[in-house]
Write a structure and sequence with these properties.
With about 375 residues, this protein is α+β, with helices and mostly antiparallel strands. Helix content is about 35%, strand content about 20%. It has helices at about 30-40, 50, 100-105, 110-120, 125-140, 165-170, 180-195, 225-235, 255-260, 335-360, 365-375, and strands at about 5, 15-20, 55-60, 65, 65-70, 75-80, 145-150, 155, 200-210, 240-245, 265, 275-280, 285-290, 290, 295-305, 315, 325. The strands form 6 sheets. A 5-stranded antiparallel β-sheet has the order 8-7-9-15-10. Strand 16 (about 315) and strand 17 form a beta hairpin. The chain is globular and about 70 Å long. The relative contact order is 0.18. Bound molecules: ligand EPS. Ligand EPS binds next to loops.
Amino acid sequence: MLYFKTAGESHGKCLIAIVEGFPAGILIDEAIVNRELRRRQGGLGRGGRMQIEEDRVEILSGVRKNITIGSPICFMIKNSDYKIDELPAVTRPRPGHADLAGVMKYNQKDARNILERASARETAARVAVGAVLKVLLFQFGIDVFGYVRGIGGINSDKFIKDMEVAKKNREQSRSYCIDHDIEGKIIEKIKQTAEKGDSLGGVIEVIAYGVPVGLGNHTQWDLRLDARLAGALMSVQAIKGVELGLGFGVADKFGSEVHDEIFYDEAKQDKSLTGGFKRTTNNAGGIEGGISNGEPIVVRAYMKPIPTLKKPLRSVDLLSKEPFTATYERSDVCAVPAASVVCEAMVTFEIARAFLEKFGGDSLDEVKRNYEGYLSNMNIATNFT
Ligand code: EPS
C-alpha cells in the first residue's frame, strides 16, 4: 500500500519523508522534486524565512540510477536555519496555533517543543512526495493542478477552460492565480495587510484531470475518495474547510439543480474515460458515492489567516498566567500560494493511493497491465501515455 510519513522540526537539522509502496521502474530525479520545492517556497506574502532557505532534496534510498526499485524512498531537505537548540523558550501561546493545546497535551513549559513540529515548514517534505507521485500519475495521463482562487476576500470568478492556458497564467502569476485581473488587487491587499501587522487567508482549488471511473469505494466510510481527499486537505496547516464540486452551495439548491444528468455518446464509448457516458455539468466534482466517476475531480480548500501576527493578539503567559500579547518572532503575511502547492501534493497522494489500490503492482509494467485490462474491459483505448 502506498503511504508516507514525515519527520523534522522547522529549525531542526532537516526534514525527512519516507514513501512506501511506490512501484519499481519509474524514472525520477532530484531536479523534478526541486522544481516543486521552489514553487512552494515562492509566491506572494512570504516572510524572512524564505530568504534564508533554498530547499533542495537529497534522495537517500529507493532509487538507483534515477529509477525507482520498489523499496522505501527517503527524501531529505536540509534546513539552513538550523538552530533549534539555541532558540528561546516560547511561553506566550499564539491564538490559532498549536501552542497552547500542544503544551497542555504534552505537559511542556515551552511551546517551542510544540510549534517546531506544528510549523508549516513540514509541508516541504509533503511536496517532495507529491512531486514523485505526479510522475507516477502522469504515466497514466492523470494531471493534478492546484492554484489560488482568491486571497483575503479578493476571489476570481473565472474557471479553467483550457488547462494549458491556466498553467501558463499560473506560472506568470506571483499569487499563483489563473486570473490576472485580480492579481493587482491581491498584491495591494497583501501590502496593506503587512503594513498593519496582520495576516491573510484564501481559497485554493485543485483539479485532477484524467482520473478513471472507479477510484475510491462506496462500501466503507473510510474508503470513500471524497472523505479521503477532505481528510488529506484538512491535514494541511491552516486549512479550515474543504468542499467538492459545487460544495457548500448544494445546501441551498433543489436536487434538480445539483445533480449532473447522465447522457450517452456512442461515438465516444471507445475513447473517453467514462466509456461514452457523459455529463454536461460537474457539480459532484467528479465523485459520486465515494467513487470517481470519470469527470475531473474538483476540490477546494479554505485557508485561515496565519496565526503568527506582527501585531499580536492577547494571550496569557504559560508560567505566570499574566495577560500578555502572544509571541512574535517573524512570519509570513500570507502563505496561500505556497499552500496551493501543498494541497496539490496532498490531492496527488490520495489519488495515487486510490489508483494503486485498484491497479497496484510492484512494478510500473504490472500497474500498466492492470490498468489496461480494466480499461479494455470498458472498451476504452489504452493510449493514455
Ligand atoms: C511558520 C513560521 C515561519 C514560516 C514557516 C511556517 O517560519 P519561521 O518561524 O522560521 O519564521 O516561514 O514556513 C516555512 C518555514 C516554510 O518552509 O514554509 C509556522 O509557524 O507555521
